[in-house]
Amino acid sequence: MFSVTVRDHMMIAHSFRGEVFGPAQRLHGATYVVDATFRRAELDADGIVVDIGRATEELHAVLGELNYRNLDDEPDFAGLNTSTEVLARVVSDRLAERVHAGALGAAARELDGLVVTLHESHLASASYERAL
Amino acid sequence: MFSVTVRDHMMIAHSFRGEVFGPAQRLHGATYVVDATFRRAELDADGIVVDIGRATEELHAVLGELNYRNLDDEPDFAGLNTSTEVLARVVSDRLAERVHAGALGAAARELDGLVVTLHESHLASASYERAL
Amino acid sequence: MFSVTVRDHMMIAHSFRGEVFGPAQRLHGATYVVDATFRRAELDADGIVVDIGRATEELHAVLGELNYRNLDDEPDFAGLNTSTEVLARVVSDRLAERVHAGALGAAARELDGLVVTLHESHLASASYERAL
Amino acid sequence: MFSVTVRDHMMIAHSFRGEVFGPAQRLHGATYVVDATFRRAELDADGIVVDIGRATEELHAVLGELNYRNLDDEPDFAGLNTSTEVLARVVSDRLAERVHAGALGAAARELDGLVVTLHESHLASASYERAL
Amino acid sequence: MFSVTVRDHMMIAHSFRGEVFGPAQRLHGATYVVDATFRRAELDADGIVVDIGRATEELHAVLGELNYRNLDDEPDFAGLNTSTEVLARVVSDRLAERVHAGALGAAARELDGLVVTLHESHLASASYERAL
Amino acid sequence: MFSVTVRDHMMIAHSFRGEVFGPAQRLHGATYVVDATFRRAELDADGIVVDIGRATEELHAVLGELNYRNLDDEPDFAGLNTSTEVLARVVSDRLAERVHAGALGAAARELDGLVVTLHESHLASASYERAL
What is the ipTM of this complex? Predict the structure, then answer.
């Protein structure tokens, strides 16, 4: 099994609902350093999993929809805690849509799976892994 | 599949028995930077895998039982090489006991698995992965 | 010249005023991974620059005054852009006050200087350096 | 499941054929920081997956066959794009040959699998995972 | 004293002349992860050292003149070893020219100095520091 | 001003005397990831500060005198706390002796200064800077 991982980041504000979150119930923010890993069993005709440049562009586009925003104000997240785990799934699902739409090229439709990891600090991260 | 990872560290002394260890048969020591990864298929009602604050506290408690000690003097490790691999299993099993005892909350009993990685330097690490 | 550096982090929301900031004029947020470096010419009687444990506690206390907050609502920053640079100075000056008040011990009053670096992502950081 | 990971690096020149590579079709180069992960279900009699020292030596030997070279001139890669993915497989397969030949010791023949990750920058990496 | 640091990278081929370089006399390559640090005594009217976005763009433009190239073929480096140290000076001097030409804005002309560090691997780097 | 930095590590046991050290008064250990930075105003005839290979070898030799040892048993440190700060000075002074003895080559005698940083964890480090 092969994989390729590309990294980017986003800087957002949000707050959480639920006692478990303690002081994170207040409006605060985070830099998420985001790693997106694309997996496939065999390489394409160019000898790659996916073009690193295009993968980087698509990840950047997905993060651009969230970057420099207060997620508490985004209709897509109404009623949801935008925890690191939830955001890992959102980024993953939006990348998957782009793969299926051909944004990463025809060969990228042979991808088997995707993992997205959001690092919220040097001490904590969350991931979501899905099939493609 | 979702996961959350938290990081802490411990600083211990120990020695190894066995020719394969060369100069590490002498009493020496290590800083282990420890990553604990908690996995589950679905998020809980708060939208998380496990509370990062509580996961951090429990990891800190487990490492606190080993930190600033000479492991050669610990009865739990009598007759064992406290290799990075063995310590990864010890930390993992002790975290699993805490999960089962409810230390991470009732919802954390839905966790599927656990991976513990100990980084002994910028060049080497060991991991142990187990079900929960 | 000797130095000791300790690391912690904070997660805040804020917005900037000024066209130069582009989309960062919107309410967003950041994780700042913060390194505080304490400098002195000679070590104290214990052979240290400053106790790493106490330095870590004081840095944590200073960051705790800002952590999990929307800095736009903090009276201390009214009329100020809480840029990474400005926050590096704020953290540095507050640590300096604690040093002068003896929070790091009597010997720590021999410290010569302080550098505080805030990493806002894997790609960008800002520092402020001052005498003590 | 246990694993041990060791890190080394190599510095090579190469060029790619295929429009997808854009400016990387020109002769350029890369530092690959290489992580090799060895996996097995149970530890050996010494309490380890594989000796970290020997694993490091074998990885260094494998990288030494590629290091400080223009891969466009290597007969082994004639007609191939030496993409990060392809090189991850090459390093992995060559390490596997050494494991099978006993270079990591008799006990290392109990290894179950191998993952090799090449980091081409702070932003991108590729991996290849195989059974042993 | 304040500073801001931004990071980018380039991937180049080159060879060295001189016995001291051993196998690096062969054509090989490197990924250089590049940190550019801008320093000034006081912040500008916006509360910053320099706009991180513009600094990132100018660093990217400077590295773009070298990226994906065989430096042995560049007329600018004829007769020079493009060592990590030499390239740190080249990047630094080219950034300085852009600062003086106003590419970082009028306020950036108040900058006092510049440090450029090139990381050639996880184990080695070189820096050049100059006044502005 | 130019500089070159090389990285290596050592794994030692030790204990501290003094109440300030708390639980670190017990026998424990550390991995020190060590960065040695060599500085000079002008490059040598080969276009370098110092040969990275030789600098790496000399740092490795200096660390080899301490590696895999219990520093409490080393006569050189009798009556001393082998704090991270003290060890940074020891490594620095021993490297300086080697520079003066010509181990880094005749040209390396033009070096102006040396900084040694020991990272004891992902959260704390200490440095010593001296002239050459």
Answer: 0.96
